[in-house]
Design a protein that fits this description.
The chain is mainly beta. The protein has three helices and 21 strands. It has one domain: Porin, CATH 2.40.160.
Amino acid sequence: MESLKFNNCKGLWPAITLAGLMVSATTGRAFEPRDLFAFSVGPVVVRPSLQLMGQYDDNIFFLPQPRVDDFLFLLRPGVDFRIGSLDTQHRLTVGYDLTSRFYAENTSQDSTDHLFSFDASLNWTRVRVGANAGFQYLTGILGGYEATQDGIFLPVGKVDRLYVPISATVSYALSEKTEPYVRGDIRLTDYDTGGAVFRYYDLFQWRAFAGTTYKITPKTRLLAEGFYGQWLTDPNSVLQPEVGDADSAGGSIGVTGQVFSRLTGTAKVGVQTVWDEIGETDLTEPTGEISFSAPITEKISANLGYRHDISVSPQGTTAGGDPSRRMVLVYIQDSLTAGVTGRFGAAHPLTIGISGSYILNGYATGGVIRDGEFYRVGLNTSYQIKLWMNVGASYEYGSSSYSGSGASDYDYNRVSVFATFGF
């Protein structure tokens, strides 16, 4: 492996080392390794981190045949900057994470991902403002959970892509119990314009929400909201025909907070309607969402999430069975996630986690009639050597299957060992 491939990460080390030395100097005590991973610059808390990982993947391209396996080395440096905490009136967190993958045999698949994140919360007597945003530029192989979640059933290998999700909420406390709010959500998905990615359309999704919550107990609120939004498509090439846009409207009611004495989260049920501009799609579907976490014992906790809604795939489809006409590909998605985590020991705790996820996509618009399933299960263990250092191992199995033509079934196994530095 060429040493030049690490050049994009070398610049991080002088900054981290200098920061650690500065902290030692300002505190007037001897330098300690933990100083590298949490220090303050005025009111800002800076927390660098680093993960080193070795991984074996027996199907790197997510294909039934040819099945290509390889060993990878992953380098994951990151840093976040925080002002305030959960107990303060205002708080702001900005973060950056980089993931570089280096393949032992398939070096043409080497890739680097960049993730910027932003989260802010501003609280006054009656007004609360919350906002979060992400900027993900990914350059690796597209497939598995990521592709299925976005409604892609024909992955093409390595694809440069950009995801930009943004959400902002403003609420006003009318009374001790009633708090109406408005929220805006945006998600931009942009694929590189080269080679086989012509089959993908760029998507710009926006939704505007209006709703209210009502306190029924000190820790529990009822909620009701409605929304309207659109999916706007953009071809990646002059060779791609226009597929048009789609509109969406709906609403939901639910409950959020501490639902029972040991159960915390949100549950919502509602309805959603999606229609496209060429009149080929007019779909109304009940929707639902749950997200709960609960301690099972003092050392073991569990979480559960489920979502049923309608979305638009970046792949288009034929309109009315006519290959010369194209339209947006709408699908109904059921997604389920669950996990159990245990933390054992005091001075050097051992953490063991078991997780699973399942996605069912139902495509039934235009010339596409098929169902796609994806599930994965994972086991993760880590051992805390120091407060700022963990080592561990993980295993993941994933499987994808589709009914109908045009997509292939596959599965994969991944085994990883890692060391993580940071708080």
